[in-house]
Design a protein that fits this description.
209 residues, alpha/beta, Rossmann fold, 7-stranded mixed sheet, 5 helices, 7 strands, 17% strand
Length: 209
């Protein structure tokens, strides 16, 4: 299986600031990857990383137009398949999927980046004990934004500012909030990425990424 070319854009695209962290954790693990919400910054990157391996990438999406577009750009192959979910207005299709889906192999990474925002918290809660690492893009608003109540709803402590990593401490035991690589610029000021594990696995320092 040939390695696919891929252009990283985390340093110029504020929507791709998760890429260094997603790549680092994916390359340091050996199991399959579940991707909730598809996009160039994650789907293309994960296909590039996993191209020469037997690790599976499962990409799950509920926007049919976007699903078709991305599938045409990144067609299914032996170690990459897509799952389309018919959306429900209250977002409960994600809950239904999480309650019924079983994966035959070890899951190393659950990359969580879907809509609505509440679904990200549901996915984290459902998969935390089933994966080595859960990674949430857009864990908070863009860097430099005013204090906000948190993008992940009830799993964050809204009384603490978004720069305070402790706002997750009362629901998660082992986690790290990665802010985009400094210095922040007008084009590179995207949201921080949250990585957590329930398996007592190591979390990477910035120097290791």
């Amino acid at each position: 299986m040939p390695t696919e070319d891929y252009e990283y854009d985390w340093d110029t695209n504020c929507w791709s600031t998760h890429q260094p962290f997603l790549e680092a954790y994916t390359r340091r693990t050996s199991g399959d990857v579940l991707e909730f919400g598809i996009g160039h910054g994650s789907t293309g990157l994960l296909r590039h990383i996993l191209a020469d391996s037997d690790r599976m990438l499962i990409s799950i999406e509920d926007n049919l137009e976007w699903f078709r577009k991305m599938k045409s750009i990144y067609p299914e192959r032996a170690n990459h398949r897509y799952i389309y979910l018919e959306p429900k207005e209250d977002g409960s299709h994600w809950k239904d999927f999480l309650a019924s889906y079983t994966h035959p192999n070890k899951i190393s990474i659950a990359f969580i980046d879907q809509a609505p925002w509440e679904a990200r918290a549901w996915t984290l809660e459902a998969l935390l004990d089933k994966t080595e690492y859960c990674m949430i893009h857009d864990a908070e608003y863009f860097c430099g934004s005013p204090d906000t109540p948190g993008m992940l709803g009830h799993i964050t402590d809204a009384t603490l500012p978004w720069t305070n990593e402790a706002r997750y401490h009362y629901t998660l035991d082992t986690y790290k909030l990665y802010f985009p690589p400094a210095p922040w610029t007008e084009r590179n000021h995207g949201p921080p990425t949250l990585v957590t594990t329930s398996k007592k696995l190591p979390l990477l320092s910035y120097d290791a990424i």
